[in-house]
């Protein structure tokens, strides 16, 4: 344990334990040194072992990594309860675990509560509940892919009230808001940490668990395209595919389908894309907007706007790509990507958002022109190259 850790080993947790670490916000602050992360894993397992109820939450407007990791752990907790000594599969058994499986509540803090269409192929919708099913003060809560408590939307207050809060994440900007922080900025996805948790719980990787984890892994590596794609990523993918899941089906669901109206929407928003060669400290900026009106014209939900950035970022002339997506409340959800010369994570954090050096976002109000003026200013303060040119990160 380092001195700056919120809890010393064996120390009881409570609201005070969740005070941000003194160095929270410093790049790499959440990068726990080796021995500490082992202590964190032990504490996480101990907390989960003793729990009668475990509440899971992932970040708002979940992507494949957030929802896939959470559902994988929900499946694992359910399987573990069924197989635990003394659990339903062992009635009357004299095991050490609690006699009944823990109750599992899994949700995310969006209202209305809707599972994004592209993720509805994931098994486990029956494990999800709307956020108001969350207890006011969870005894044990686990968060997935959220770099800070505010990314939990209306479940942020529950996280602040939780007796124990286990944070599973891979954002370097993670604020260390848990009582147990399993944060590894080197991990390609939160799914990598979720796999580790499930393995350490001793639960066999079922097909359902593998599908969730694989969705997380392919989402955040851009289907094994981005610089986070390591031999370990492929080894994990191989391990997951051994369960019989079909990569072609996952790819089709995530990237290869949309309503016909998406073609019209894409044509509209790409047609208004602007290229600014002098922006981003001369490395070039390309940007566009997807407004509520655009979506209404084609009767499309907000989530269809998420994939627009993947087309916009193709423009060779720009290091930075930005898409301003207007949500149903009229706020701009901004996605930014860098090819390696610009730290978009720093710029987005400065504007109240978060993310990774090469993939980040923030929420903003005002006109698109005002938002772009603020962003241009931040991008102009070039702080050096965060990565190799061309080594685009997904950073979901
Ligand atoms: P996206 O562009 O939505 O795929 O997000 C890229 C990265 O930025 C992910 O790591 C997100 O968690 C992060 N991010 C996006 N929007 C926000 C936001 N409003 N606040 C904080 N982080 C964000
Ligand atoms: Mn995410
Ligand atoms: Mn992620």
Bound molecules: adenosine monophosphate, manganese (II) ion
Spans of 5+ residues with little confidence (pLDDT < 50)? 1-33, 84-95, 387-396
| Number of H/I helices | 12
Which class of secondary structure composition applies to the elements? alpha/beta
Q: Which whole number gives the mean pLDDT? A: 87
What helical percentage do the residues reach? 25-40%
The largest pleated sheet is described as:
6 strands, mixed
Count of beta strands: 11
Spatial strand order of the main sheet: 6-7-8-9-11-10
How far apart are the first and last residues' alpha carbons, in Å?
Answer: 29 Å
User: What's the Cα radius of gyration?
Assistant: 21 Å
How are helices and strands ordered from N to C? HEHEEHEEHHHHHEEHHEEHEEH
Which descriptor suits the 3D outline? globular
Which range does the strand content fall in?
5-15%
Please render the helix and strand layout as text.
Elements: H1 34-49, E1 53-58, H2 64-83, E2 103-108, E3 140-144, H3 156-161, E4 164-169, E5 180-183, H4 190-200, H5 207-220, H6 231-241, H7 247-255, H8 261-271, E6 274-276, E7 285-290, H9 292-297, H10 308-312, E8 320-326, E9 332-338, H11 344-350, E10 354-356, E11 359-364, H12 368-380
Parallel strand pairs: 1-2, 1-3, 3-4, 4-5, 7-8
Antiparallel strand pairs: 6-7, 8-9, 9-11, 10-11
The chain binds adenosine monophosphate and manganese (II) ion (2 copies).
Adenosine monophosphate is lined by residues 151, 171, 335, 353-356, 359-363, 395-396.
Description of the structure:
Strand 3, helix 3 (156-161) and strand 4 form a beta-alpha-beta unit. A six-stranded mixed beta sheet has the order 6-7-8-9-11-10, with helices on both faces. It is globular, with a radius of gyration of 21 Å. The chain has 396 residues and is α/β, with parallel strands linked by helices. It has helices at 34-49, 64-83, 156-161, 190-200, 207-220, 231-241, 247-255, 261-271, 292-297, 308-312, 344-350, 368-380; strands at residues 53-58, 103-108, 140-144, 164-169, 180-183, 274-276, 285-290, 320-326, 332-338, 354-356, 359-364. The chain has twelve helices and eleven strands. Mean pLDDT is 87; it is low at 1-33, 84-95 and 387-396. Helix 2 (64-83) runs parallel beside helix 4, helix 2 runs antiparallel to helix 5 and helix 5 (207-220) runs antiparallel to helix 6 (231-241). The protein binds adenosine monophosphate (AMP) and manganese (II) ion (2 copies). Adenosine monophosphate is lined by residues 151, 171, 335, 353-356, 359-363, 395-396.
